[in-house]
């Protein structure tokens, strides 16, 4: 995907006040029918400049395979393009007693990169947008409810677009399918059945919508 330099520079400038590192725009088939939107890069992603690598990336690959797809078939991006981090204590040698840990992006950080996601959606016009986790789902739809209430549903809706310090709804409607973030199963193994039930629902929708 070709990027207007001004959009990228503006986003980086907006993020300067916050504890973030790296910059990952996205990767994959930007002419395909499926866009995947995650939360933010983690440590590995920030270092290598690629979305969803490491443990969460391996889990995403398993889920895509279950759906009959591969990374080459989809475009992967995120709400925030830089890794949000916080300092935590560690006893690991050579770290000086502290290390950087991933954290959830705040609303100002999400807004700082809003124009980038708006641009990607407008350029790609995907048939389906998969929102991985509550942060991505809320950014796209404005819905602050529990993702567990809608996980796996194909929701036809306008998406939020940046406008003058806030958001407005797009004139176009898109099909948003919220799924649990791939990393969620590491912290709560009990939701594995729910994850695959939601994937079954998405698989049925993809087959009907071919």
Automatic annotation (TrEMBL):
What is one GO biological process annotated to this record? DNA repair
Pfam families listed in its UniProt record: UDG (PF03167)
Q: What is this protein called?
A: DNA polymerase
Q: Does 4Fe-4S count among this protein's keywords?
A: yes
Please state every residue range assigned to the domain named Uracil-DNA glycosylase-like: 25-197
Question: Which taxonomic lineage is given here?
Answer: Bacteria, Bacillati, Bacillota, Bacilli, Bacillales
Recite the UniProt keywords alphabetically. 4Fe-4S, DNA damage, DNA repair, Hydrolase, Iron, Iron-sulfur, Metal-binding
| UniProt GO MF annotations | 4 iron, 4 sulfur cluster binding; deaminated base DNA N-glycosylase activity; metal ion binding
């Amino acid at each position: 995907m070709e990027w207007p330099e001004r959009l990228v520079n503006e986003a980086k400038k907006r993020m300067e006040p916050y504890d973030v590192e790296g910059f990952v725009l996205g990767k994959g088939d930007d002419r395909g029918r499926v866009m995947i939107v995650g939360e933010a890069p983690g440590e590995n992603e920030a270092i290598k400049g690629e979305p969803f690598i490491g443990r969460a990336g391996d889990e995403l690959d398993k889920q895509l395979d279950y759906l009959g797809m591969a990374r080459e078939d989809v475009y992967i991006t995120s709400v925030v393009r830089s890794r949000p981090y916080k300092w935590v204590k560690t006893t690991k040698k050579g770290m000086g007693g502290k290390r950087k840990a991933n954290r959830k992006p705040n609303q100002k950080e999400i807004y700082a990169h809003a124009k980038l996601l708006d641009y990607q959606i407008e350029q790609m016009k995907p048939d389906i947008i998969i929102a991985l986790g509550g942060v991505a789902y809320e950014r796209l739809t404005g819905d602050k409810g529990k993702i567990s209430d809608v996980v796996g549903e194909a929701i036809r809706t306008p998406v939020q677009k940046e406008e003058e310090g806030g958001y407005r709804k797009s004139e176009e409607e898109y099909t948003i399918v919220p799924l649990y973030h791939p990393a969620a199963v590491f912290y709560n193994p009990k939701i594995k059945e729910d994850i695959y039930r939601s994937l079954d629902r998405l698989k049925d929708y993809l087959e009907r919508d071919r």
